[in-house]
Amino acid sequence: MKFQSEKEYNEIIKILDFQLLEMDDKKIAALNHLKELAEKNNDSYIYAAYYFYHALSYPIDERIEITEKSLRLAETSGNVYIQVKSYNCLGIDYSEKADYIKSLQNYLKAYYLATKYEEYDLDWVVLNNIGNLFVWIEDYESGVSFIESAYNKYMSKKDKEPLMVMQLMINLIELHSFAHHFDKVDYWTSLEDNFFEYEGKEIVECMIQMNTIVKKQDVFTTDELVNEIERFTNKCESIDDFIYIFRMAIKILEIAVEKADEKACRHLIKMMHEKRNKSEIATFDLEFDSVLCLFDFKYENKTVDENFSNYYRNSKKAFMMLRNTYSKSLLVQIELEEEKETHKDTAEEKILLQKKLEIDPFTEIYNKIYVENKISEDLLKNSKAGHQVLFVIDIDYFKRVNDELGHDVGDSILLGVADVLRKYKQENYIVGRYGGDEFILYIKNAESNGMVKEIANKLLKETKAIKTSIVDMPHITFSIGIAVNNGEQKFDPLFKRADEALYQSKKNGRNQFTIV
After folding, report:
1. Is pTM, for the whole model, over 0.85?
2. From the CB of residue 294, how many other CB atoms can be counted at a distance below 10 Å?
3. CA-CA distance, 247 to 167, in Å (whole number)?
4. In what residue span(s) does the GGDEF domain sit (predicted)?
5. In contact, 501 and 508? CB cutoff 8 Å
6. CATH homologous superfamily for 368-515?
7. Most C-beta atoms within 10 A of its C-beta, which of 64, 228, 299, 307?
């Protein structure tokens, strides 16, 4: 991305990220602007972002398809921010389709990327979503663990958005409610100042009402229970939410069918059908249908076999056992992925350590130790006279450049020389910085003496591109010593002859090569 485009791009992303799922005129204009920017620059980095935000307005199956396209573009262009967000959104979408394994796989990819690139501040977002994944399969203890981690990470941030704090707190209240941690629910709901200015207040009130019903269902009279369920239903009807409300409503409907009256059940079921018809999320359908069957048996189909109620309860137990197994398999997968990432990190550390041992940190070509070792290996393996050639290259009057123009200019010249030599970083060559302003070029298999001279002349010519501001030295020059292998099997004797040839080039006036 060009710098001007990068600044423009970042401004657009800020607009699109604000309250991500809400699309208004400003965001539509920003999305169109992003598309124009991608087309203008023909930049897959920007296209990756465009497809990601574009996907959010589509139904779930199309959204997954477009998000996966965005992810492919983000991976090939190196757009890590969009990679994390794409994996995270795919995790959400697959969980809503009840494909929990795929959901977790995407969440874990998002999480490990987010922890590696902390500057994007997305790790807590993914942890929160992994916690919600465990809510879908009713493993509330695991869900609490992940969401508490997300909350603690977010609260450790210097700049916190009240809306995000509220969202995490609502998730914790919901989980503690389902896990029957009523003391924890009381604690979190007592912090109600956090919810006053947001619609989260109404959701929390519904959760408090749900907890009242769950806690006192065996204490209430039938009339009292009916009144509490009606109060819950009325509260839920006025809230434009599906996931939180439907999860709570299923819990309450089970109690209503078993202990309340038909009118309360029908009112609650009507509200649930209305919300379900407006949502693509299929995760709750099996559970909802199961409770509806129980309602039908009790109020619609009295002639159905009396064993149906027992069948329902046994099916419910089997379903919970299956979910428990599913939950354990997800936790095992998390452990395996953590182990895999640990080994991956260790492997990456080894590669970095190896690189430090082999690479000159300033010029990023091979260092003295690596050059000596590799050339010694090649000489020992292929010590045929005349085939191997060692160039020792020295920058003429480099001390003068540093003294008159400063070390910054000297450093840029060293980098320029490294760039010239990098062109020979191929299978048949070894190039490196031997120390200071001295460099090495080694040919493993020189075809002829003419080839050696051609390379030497090319090197001398290419130095003209590395300019200086010294009047009588407009560009740098090289002095080169070249030793053709006479059957040496070690680096030192070959280097010694090349170094002597270098001395001869300097003695003869510099800006030339000498072959021995």
Report:
1. no
2. 20
3. 16
4. 386-516
5. no
6. Reverse transcriptase/Diguanylate cyclase domain (3.30.70.270)
7. 228
